[in-house]
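Journal club prep — side note

Before the paper discussion, L.F. wants everyone to see what a predicted structure for a comparable chain looks like in token form. Sequence:
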Amino acid sequence: MVNLINYTKKGLADLPSNPILKFSDYASKIPDVIKFTLGEPDFDTPEHIKQAAIKSVTDNHSHYAPSNGTIGLRKAAANFLAEKYGQKYDPETEVLVTTGVSESIFNTVLACLNQGDVMVVPTPVFPLYMSDANIINQGVEIVKVDTSDDGFKLTPEKLQAVLDQYGDRVRMLVMNYPTNPTGVTYTQEELDALADVIRDKPIFALCDEIYSELCYDGPHASMEKSLHDQVIVMNGVSKAWAMTGYRIGIVCAPKGILEQIAKVHQTIVTTEPTPMQDAAEEAFKNGMDDSKPMKEEFQKRRDVLYKGLTEIGFECAKPEGAFYIFAKIPEGLEQDDNKFIYDLVDKAHVAVTSGSCFAKGGEGYIRFSYAVAMAEIEEGLKRIAKYVEEYKK
């Protein structure tokens, strides 16, 4: 019998499955487990958005939309970005609707990188950017820059050092802010300084801003203001409106760049479901402040979880956005974060994500998602405190 697995895309079989999802499945089998794992808001989609989706179905919006997305959604998204963040994009030629930001990232990596190019990724970071580059497998080299000694922020000095080492091969800088897994974000001045390093060089800046509406301590900053012509902005409705299942993302870029990204989208997706686009249009158009109550609740949860973890003995970067806390495992406990999370869930019935999932700088850390009810946070802290007291050497 022929083993056809040997004839699938080279290298694909060697890539591991998503360890975050694998562990979440394991933890779900524990009956009373408290899960601080998956990054998904535990709120309902606002009612006016749900009604827009229902109306779209009853109005028989059941046919193909334009490949780049309905013009209504693109106009609403462009207006939202302009009103909220001062980002200026032409909805006709510079906005593309995708299957969540996940597809935006895949399309952009495929459209903008060639064999031999270098993609610079500040870490710890959500692994999707690197996974996409590995799956595409065009001979792209991924350079991971450990930011754990710099407050989990990329510095201009470290970015310049990469350019000095790799020269003209550097083609893309990946930026995610507020950042998954740390919740850290950048000021406009910090982004301006990074932009100055790559300004007027043939380097794309992929800026994943999906958590833009969940900034707690100040306004959302964007590298687009610093470097419009080189920046590719990604956003969407998943986090700010609790619409993860609607799968609507937005990618914005100067016309010539977006045209190339859109060619990939046309090939692999064609277009998004029209009712979901109509719902997303309603979110961007009439839900500009929908995220405020959710953000206020997330901030309360952040404060309780951060205070509780630090009192137990965890060192944490205080999140400035998103809904994650990245905590260093206290000394005296198992320091291998991949072993630690299984021990914690088996003994304390608390599930967290290993820091190593997020690449260099994540070793010895664990990620908490506080997209869970306050009562679960409080109970989870009690269980963790008991676990540390019992098992710390």
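L.F.'s comment for the group: Residues 291-312 form the longest helix (22 residues). Keep this in mind when we get to the figures.
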